[in-house]
Specification:
single chain; 364 residues; mainly alpha; Arc Repressor Mutant, subunit A; Glutaredoxin; elongated; binds FE2/S2 (inorganic) cluster; oxidoreductase; metal-binding; 2Fe-2S
């Protein structure tokens, strides 16, 4: 992408104002945005200014900035970033944008650019001698299927040849209308010459039948602009010949008519799995739209949980008795320890008292 600058001062008008119609449109457009978000109207306003004058002038940028209470640099950034904004005067009758991206390039866009260089100006973004025509190369315009193509204002001209482009340029110069869209025998982006596939839905229209004669001969021939009947696609429909569509096959959930109860779903959600995740997380969850398999899994989980809980309850009295016995045992051991620890001290006291007594006696 080249650097995009504003046009030189010599061609810049000194002021800008919307026409009466555009002014009321601008008012309405700005009011569409919530309070405090009026700056969002910057692109629509710039585009309307371009449609009015043919290109975005410096005065228009200043006008929009003032109108939306935006710093001028912010509006300049927008105008110079998007290549849809023309920053220099363009041809008054046509500005031809030739797509030069790969599909169009492979289909001959270089030849189209050569036509523009010869008929309009050797360099893009320059006016022809009369100031009526200009051209530029642009990136993909989204009509690659009909490459190569060009855009003039808001219309696209597709399936171009250098000769057809010259005719279009001549027509614009004369001020004539040119029919947009494909410029060959093609309807929109349908195959050239009409549909070659999906031409019938009849059961007897199998591939073998198609081999009997060239489909193209029997397919509707699309004149440009004529409607072509394109049969609905078979894509996404049930293939009744496939093994997996055998009606005798049923998914486990569908077969049993099983759906998960809310309680089962709760249990699955609350029950942590082996790795700490909930069963719902492991199974992908069964709360909404449970499949039969998931419902069964949830029920199995619930049953297992009930079993575990019941088992724990049954074990509880025995465990409590064991625990109580252990506590009693511990207490008695503590008492024993305490008494054995106290014994020597008591004995020491008795010994001391007896020795004191004997001392006293001795002393007495
Ligand atoms: S490449 Fe030309 S329209 Fe897409």
């Amino acid at each position: 992408m080249s650097v995009r600058r504003l046009a030189e001062d010599a061609v810049q008008p000194t002021s800008f104002a919307f026409s009466v119609d555009n002014e009321s449109w601008a008012e309405k457009t700005i009011r569409k945005y919530p309070e405090g978000r009026q700056q969002s109207a910057v692109i629509p306003l710039l585009m309307r200014a371009q449609e009015q004058d043919g290109w975005v002038t410096r005065a228009a940028i200043e006008h929009v900035a003032k109108r939306l209470s935006m710093p001028l640099i912010r509006v300049l950034e927008v105008a110079t970033f998007y290549t849809q904004f023309q920053l220099k005067p363009i041809g008054t009758k046509a500005h031809i944008q030739i797509c030069g991206t790969t599909p169009c390039m492979l289909r001959g866009s270089d030849d189209l650019k050569a036509v523009c260089a010869r008929r309009i100006h050797a360099e893009q973004f320059h006016l022809n001698a009369a100031g009526t025509l200009s051209w530029e190369e642009v990136e993909c315009l989204g009509a690659c299927v009909n490459a190569p193509m060009a855009m003039v204002f808001k219309d696209t001209y597709e399936d171009l040849t250098p000769e057809r482009l010259e005719e279009i340029i001549d027509a614009f110069e004369r001020g004539e209308e040119v029919r947009p869209g494909p410029q060959i025998d093609r309807h929109l982006s349908a195959p050239v010459g009409g549909a070659t596939t999906l031409t019938s839905l009849g059961d007897d229209d199998e591939l073998g039948d198609r081999d009997e004669g060239p489909v193209r001969e029997s397919a509707p021939q699309a004149g440009a602009g004529d409607a072509v009947h394109i049969a609905p696609s078979e894509a996404g429909r049930v293939d009744t010949h496939a093994e997996e569509t055998d009606p005798s096959l049923r998914s486990p959930g569908a077969e049993a008519g099983v759906t998960a109860s809310p309680a089962a779903e709760e249990a699955v959600s609350a029950d942590p799995g082996e790795d700490g995740r909930s069963s719902a997380a492991v199974t992908g969850g069964t709360r909404q739209g449970s499949t039969g398999a998931h419902a069964k899994e949830a029920q199995a989980d619930e049953a297992a949980k009930r079993h575990r809980t019941a088992g724990k309850r049954a074990e509880l009295p025995a465990r409590e008795a064991e625990a109580e016995a252990a506590v009693v045992d511990d207490k008695s051991r503590v008492v024993d320890n305490e008494s054995s620890a106290k014994k020597p001290r008591a004995r020491r006291k008795v010994d001391k008292a007896s020795s004191d007594g004997s001392d006293g006696a001795n002393g007495a």
